[in-house]
Design a protein that fits this description.
The chain contains eight helices and seven strands, in the order H-H-H-H-H-H-E-H-E-E-E-E-E-E-H. By secondary structure, it is α+β, with helices and mostly antiparallel strands. Helix 3 (20-32) packs across helix 4 (34-55), helix 4 (34-55) packs antiparallel against helix 6 and helix 5 runs antiparallel to helix 6.
Length: 248
């Protein structure tokens, strides 16, 4: 019965519509109940699939405005000038359509990237063994990855900070291996993903962005793509990102 009450709030939780106190309570429950966590993961994947499908063929506002402006224009030119104008307009529309399609594909690819990372983050929280190497010592975690992933990385010193390194695991995005590190702050867990820089065409964030119910920061550094991902406050994401950027 208790789980049924929690599951009744899952959709609002995933949409970020719960008040702060119920949000924290449900978050704590998901960390201790694999069944509800698995249900939350399935619902998130379903929401992501619907969102991705809905974005696939949406026209961009610039393209819509261009067509509306051309329809509303008055034909005051001669036939030859009008024909040239029509040809030029058609070229503009074609270029705009190609550009719009390219940008839509880029945005779709980015959304799919975040969807996969959200699935990895949630499934890790639901796992009985979230990390393969359990340690708060960066000098233990970093060497453990050697030979398991095709790159090396540095980890920050966390002394005198609010963050604790819980450990790490090898993860995969597509068929490319990467590092998944788990940090903790005030009983909340943050995922840090590291992959080769050229893995995806993901744009760097100038500030912490919001993806579904998670706050995200991502950048490239030293040939690697860093993604900091969690349901903590943006300031916590920003502070951990600063520590990681200063470690290389």
């Amino acid at each position: 019965m208790a789980c049924e009450q929690w599951r009744a709030q899952l959709d609002a939780y995933l949409d970020g519509e719960l008040p702060s106190e119920p949000m924290r309570s449900l978050d704590a429950h998901l960390r201790t109940c694999p069944a509800c966590a698995a249900d939350a993961l399935a619902r998130m994947q379903f929401k992501r699939a619907i969102k991705t499908a809905g974005m696939r063929f949406a026209p961009r506002p610039e393209f819509r405005n261009l067509i509306q402006n051309k329809i509303a224009g008055k034909p005051t030119r001669t036939w030859n000038v009008g024909w040239a104008l029509a040809t030029a307009t058609l070229a503009v529309v074609v270029v705009a359509g190609i550009l719009g399609t390219y940008l839509e594909k880029q945005n779709l690819r980015q959304q799919q990237f975040y969807s996969e990372l959200a699935d990895l983050h949630v499934s890790t929280l639901a796992s009985a063994n979230p990390v393969d190497v359990v340690s708060s010592d960066r000098h233990t975690v970093k060497p453990w990855f050697q030979g398991k992933i095709p790159f090396a990385f540095n980890l920050p010193e966390l002394q005198n900070t609010d963050f604790t390194l819980l450990g790490g695991r090898v993860t995969y995005l597509g068929q490319v291996p990467g590092a998944h590190l788990i940090y903790q702050i005030r009983k909340h867990q943050i995922s840090v993903f590291l992959f080769p820089e050229n893995l995806v065409g993901l744009r760097d964030t100038s500030n912490v962005s919001k993806e579904s119910t998670f706050n995200v920061d991502t950048w490239t550094q030293g040939g690697l793509r860093y993604v900091v991902f969690g349901d903590v406050a943006p300031e916590d994401i920003r502070n951990l990102s600063s520590l990681l950027k200063g470690s290389t």
